[in-house]
């Protein structure tokens, strides 16, 4: 299996109010098609690490490779391009535009990337909604859907540019157990059947236990 993401000795400090090392020598690899959960108590550094892995936080020492490319010292614009092309995000809150249809919401990252024409993007958005069992809801305004359905639309949106990596920050944090199960099953299907690679920060131990691999963090270190 090819390596999609690799970290070498990542260290991160906060300086306010005093110097504090939040990440200590983080080194690991993530393979293509792997479903990885990151767990640890609040303050263990897992969300901080996710923001570094997603290239949104560049204030660290060490190296981050994505798709065999060293991304550590790239410019803001270069990193934005990598995020648009290679990373899909699913957050605890879905961040859908309420008055837009589900279809429009899913299309937004692809319209922003600008590699396909409008009709191609629309077709692709339908395809992604279909994978998530929501094609019949495509034209409904996002705010007319249930919380679980909205999170599935957010996953479809994360998939629209066929990213190498999906990064989830508490992707089931706002969902009840039934919808958590649905989202977990979707993630599993994406890795097993579509070769998608997923890294998810979670507080949900059951969710983590059933993923392919767990990285547990404590006091800024992988234990």
Describe the structure.
Helix 3 packs across helix 4, helix 4 (118-131) crosses helix 5 (147-159) and helix 5 runs parallel beside helix 6 (177-194). This protein starts with a strand and ends with a strand. It has a six-stranded mixed beta sheet with strand order 6-7-8-3-9-10. It is built from seven helices and ten strands. It has helices at residues 46-53, 76-86, 102-113, 118-131, 147-159, 177-194, 205-210, and strands at residues 3-14, 20-31, 35-39, 61-66, 69-70, 87-91, 165-169, 197-201, 213-218, 221-222. It is α/β, with parallel strands linked by helices and 223 residues long.
SS-based structural class? alpha/beta
Strand order of the largest sheet: 6-7-8-3-9-10
State the helix count: 7
Rg computed from alpha carbons, rounded to a whole number of angstroms = 17 Å
Quickly list its features.
four-stranded antiparallel sheet; 223 residues; six-stranded mixed sheet; 27% strand; alpha/beta
Give a short overview.
By secondary structure, this protein is an alpha/beta fold. The protein is 37% helix and 27% strand. The chain starts with a strand and ends with a strand.
How would you summarize the topology of this molecule?
Layout: E1 3-14, E2 20-31, E3 35-39, H1 46-53, E4 61-66, E5 69-70, H2 76-86, E6 87-91, H3 102-113, H4 118-131, H5 147-159, E7 165-169, H6 177-194, E8 197-201, H7 205-210, E9 213-218, E10 221-222
Parallel strand pairs: 3-8, 3-9, 6-7, 7-8
Antiparallel strand pairs: 1-2, 1-4, 4-5, 9-10
